[in-house]
């Protein structure tokens, strides 16, 4: 009596597990489909057409893509954010690393105050921070100008052609140091006590521990922070977009690839070409982020 | 449940769009539309009048501050029609939303503020109702010719003029008096005056020019007698920024002003700029007649120091003027009650009570002849301007505007890339004519891609 029942029931728990698994997965999957896959698929679909003011919409195959690849304005914007990435991301991550190590060292008097203060700019909306920095950078009546006046020197115009990228880098660093510090600090807290004890027994000082224990343990977290920053750099939009009203001749409509895509879609009604530019930008970001990941993984293996 | 009303919205939107397409086709197909207008107009304009008595709800997108007061007057007069005033952003921001809503088939307002420079784009794409199908052509004589010229496009009428911005020179009388200067009447005198201001204090300028403001330069070119943009028919566009004689006049003067650093290339309307306007760093502002409101609100401490003079001229014997800014009010085909929307747009911008309210309560410079010629408007001394009767100067400035100026059917985009091209020369002291050529090249490339036939040099 029991044996067949058991045999017949055998797949049942598996089936139930499977159903339960899908049930848990479903809410995420639906949101993922609606919020990520569908817009992406729609953008890719749009990128194969051309909508003209005279003549309407026609299928244009890969024409938008061949145009995007050879578009000098898009290329210049990509190079600009790449330069930004190469300079700003290491600076920001080094500062974040220093802050995380300082809090973790236990030698600060009010570590939580320090942590909150550095994290605070991340909580300020990018638009507000850009407006604030726009005021600070003013070389005539802004803070920089006033300091220059007080010191009796001509303040540099931080929103001129040669300074602008650095000024944006400064804003982005200010905004995101705290965020990256938290990622790194969390990783530091996850290092087991025993490692420190062992290092101390071996006679390692604080700096030696930071170098030989903490840094290697931080590598995965640093990789995550780097990848986030790479994506953030390629997506650069808010800060230059707000500063554009203050320096229209410096921040052109194609200053960053995202600004270019925005301008094409919304000022130029070239939604299809804009979609192609966005897709190419996404691909470039994926390739760079993946390359960084592979390079670090390979180095880890050789170490 | 929730999808049903919106789907119905799409359907009616589509029907309305198809209807307006059909109407527009009637107007355009017969060549001039004169043959169809008389038969269509009376019944359509009767429908517009009838609509005022029927209950309706309209949404009106505008960024004019204070216009609620004028709308409230409309509601008091026509209580059946409820108007919701929505600020959907300023200029290009609003156009983006408007175009998105029109393409999506739902979510667009019934009535929207559209600046003159953007109207041809909406008209060409049939994204605004041709109001001559509803008898609006009859309003022509109520408006200043330059204002009407901006809404009469391709034989149709695509908006009702709301305000205008005839250009004038707002200047700091205190600074001019101190330096014993007179407001320049010609551009040659303007250059001299700029040199004297600079000689007095090298940190000060006669005026500034915004490297990001295409509209400002369009107006200065217009005032110089230029006509670099021309559209004929629906798809033929000529751009002559490199060769137009009026453009060359402008280039001659402004190359001198910029290369000798007599004017400050500084973006306008920023905090820094207003501080410069307040501190006396800039002695004059060449802009539209709507400026007094901005000056009074942004730098109230300069009260009594300002005065207004006509624009400097290239040829004093043949004075010419231009518009800077100004908006129309257009009806969107998606509207479920186009006659009521047309009636509202017409009342708002042509009824004597309304235009007076727009002027005094919303600070707009009038577009109607009746108000421009009204002695109560012209001859009232303005306290902020030291008792000067500024509306006499501004009213005359309006009468001198060349009415034949045209914008491109894609001026919104063309203006957006101004900063990439001409703005570079304005900011960096480069040659304006080379920069205008590169602006022209980008405009030509865009227009060709959009299916227009472009010509010009």
Low-confidence stretches of chain B: 1-41
Instruction: Calculate the terminal CA-CA distance of chain A, rounded to whole Å.
Output: 62 Å
Give the C-alpha Rg of chain B: 22 Å
What is the CATH architecture descriptor of the domain at 71-126 and 161-302 in chain A?
Orthogonal Bundle
Describe the structure.
- The complex is a heterodimer of chains A (303) and B (457).
- Chain A has 303 residues and is mainly alpha-helical.
- Chain A has a domain at 71-126 and 161-302: Orthogonal Bundle (MetI-like fold).
- Chain A has helices at 2-9, 11-46, 63-69, 72-104, 111-123, 126-137, 143-151, 164-189, 193-201, 206-234, 238-243, 257-267, 271-302, and strands at residues 49-52, 56-59.
- In chain A, a hairpin with a 3-residue loop joins strand 1 and strand 2.
- Chain A is flat, with a radius of gyration of 26 Å.
- Chain B is an alpha/beta fold and 457 residues long.
- Chain B has two domains: 3-164 and 325-372, D-Maltodextrin-Binding Protein, domain 2 (3-Layer(aba) Sandwich), CATH 3.40.190; 167-322 and 397-455, D-Maltodextrin-Binding Protein, domain 2, CATH 3.40.190.
- Chain B has helices at 3-29, 37-51, 67-77, 92-104, 119-124, 145-151, 173-178, 187-200, 214-223, 245-259, 271-279, 291-298, 338-350, 352-361, 369-372, 375-378, 390-399, 411-416, 422-428, 432-449, and strands spanning 56-61, 81-86, 111-115, 152-153, 156-157, 160-161, 167-172, 208-209, 229-232, 236-239, 264-265, 284-288, 306-309, 327-331, 453-455.
- In chain B, strands 2-1-3-14-6 form a five-stranded mixed sheet, sandwiched between helices. A three-stranded antiparallel sheet of chain B has the order 12-7-13. A three-stranded mixed sheet of chain B has the order 9-10-15, with helices on one face.
- At the A-B interface, helix 12 of A face helix 4, helix 11, helix 18 and helix 19 of B.
């Amino acid at each position: 009596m029991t044996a067949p029942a058991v045999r017949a029931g055998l797949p049942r728990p598996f089936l139930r597990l499977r159903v339960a698994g899908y049930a848990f997965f479903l809410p995420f999957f639906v949101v993922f489909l609606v919020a990520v896959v569908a817009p992406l698929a729609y953008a890719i679909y749009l990128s194969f057409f051309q909508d003209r003011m005279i003549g309407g919409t026609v299928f244009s195959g890969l024409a938008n893509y061949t145009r995007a690849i050879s578009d000098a304005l898009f290329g210049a914007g990509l190079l600009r954010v790449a330069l930004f990435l190469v300079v700003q991301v290491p600076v920001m991550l080094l500062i974040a690393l220093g802050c995380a190590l300082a809090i973790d060292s236990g030698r600060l008097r009010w570590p939580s105050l320090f942590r909150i203060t550095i994290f605070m700019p991340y909580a300020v909306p990018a638009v507000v921070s850009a407006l604030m920095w726009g005021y600070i950078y003013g070389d005539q009546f802004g803070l920089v100008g006033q300091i220059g006046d007080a010191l009796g020197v001509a303040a540099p115009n931080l929103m001129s052609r040669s300074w602008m990228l650095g000024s944006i880098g400064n804003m982005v660093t200010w905004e995101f140091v705290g965020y990256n510090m938290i990622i790194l600090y969390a990783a530091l807290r996850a290092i087991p006590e025993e490692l420190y004890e062992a290092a101390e027994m071996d006679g390692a000082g604080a700096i030696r521990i930071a170098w030989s224990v903490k840094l290697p343990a931080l590598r995965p977290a640093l990789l995550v922070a780097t990848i986030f920053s790479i994506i953030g750099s390629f997506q650069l939009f808010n800060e230059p977009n707000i500063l554009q009203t203050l320096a229209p001749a410096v921040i052109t409509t194609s200053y960053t690839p995202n600004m270019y895509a925005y301008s094409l879609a919304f000022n130029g009604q070239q939604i299809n070409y804009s979609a192609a530019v966005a897709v190419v930008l996404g691909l470039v970001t994926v390739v760079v982020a993946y390359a960084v990941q592979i390079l670090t993984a390979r180095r880890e293996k050789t170490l | 449940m929730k999808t049903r009303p919106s789907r119905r919205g799409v359907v009616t939107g589509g029907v309305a769009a198809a209807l307006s397409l059909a109407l527009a086709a009637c107007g355009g197909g017969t060549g001039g539309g004169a043959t169809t207008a008389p038969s269509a107009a009376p019944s359509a304009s009767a429908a517009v009048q009838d609509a005022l008595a029927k209950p309706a709800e309209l949404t009106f997108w505008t960024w004019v501050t204070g216009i609620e007061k004028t709308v409230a007057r409309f509601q008091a007069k026509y209580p059946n029609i409820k108007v919701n005033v929505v600020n959907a952003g300023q200029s290009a921001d609003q156009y983006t939303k408007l175009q998105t809503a029109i393409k999506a088939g739902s979510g667009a307002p019934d009535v929207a503020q559209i600046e003159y420079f953007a109207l041809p784009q909406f008209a060409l794409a049939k994204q605004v109702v041709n109001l001559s199908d509803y008898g609006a052509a009859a309003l022509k004589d109520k408006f200043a010719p330059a204002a009407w010229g901006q809404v009469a496009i391709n034989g149709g009428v695509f908006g009702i003029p709301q305000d205008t911005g005839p250009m004038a020179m707002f200047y700091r009388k205190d600074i001019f008096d101190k330096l014993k200067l007179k407001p320049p009447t010609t551009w040659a005198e303007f250059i001299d005056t700029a040199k004297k201001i600079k000689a007095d204090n090298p940190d000060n300028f006669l005026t500034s020019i915004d490297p990001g403001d295409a509209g400002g330069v369009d107006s200065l070119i217009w005032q110089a007698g230029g006509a670099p943009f021309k559209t004929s028919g629906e798809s033929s566009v000529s751009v002559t920024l490199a060769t137009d004689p009026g453009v060359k006049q402008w280039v001659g003067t402004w190359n001198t002003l910029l290369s000798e650093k007599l004017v400050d290339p500084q973006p306008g309307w920023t905090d820094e700029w207003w501080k410069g306007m307040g501190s006396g760093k800039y002695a004059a502002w060449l802009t539209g007649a709507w400026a007094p409101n901005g000056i009074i609100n942004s730098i109230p401490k300069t009260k009594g120091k300002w005065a207004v003079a006509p624009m400097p001229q290239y040829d004093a014997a043949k004075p010419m003027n231009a518009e800077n800014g100004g908006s129309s009010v257009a009806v969107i085909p998606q509207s479920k009650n186009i006659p009521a929307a047309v009636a509202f747009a017409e009342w708002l911008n042509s009824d004597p009570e309304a235009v007076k309210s727009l002027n005094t309560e919303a600070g707009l410079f009038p577009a109607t002849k009746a108000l421009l010629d009204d002695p109560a408007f012209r001859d009232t001394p303005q306290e902020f301007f030291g008792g000067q009767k500024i509306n006499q100067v501004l009213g005359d400035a309006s009468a001198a505007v060349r009415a034949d100026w045209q914008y491109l059917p894609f001026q919104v985009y063309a203006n957006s890339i101004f900063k990439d091209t001409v703005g570079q020369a304005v900011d960096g002291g480069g040659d304006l004519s080379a920069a205008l050529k590169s602006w022209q090249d980008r405009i030509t490339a865009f227009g060709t891609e959009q299916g227009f036939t472009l010509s010009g040099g």
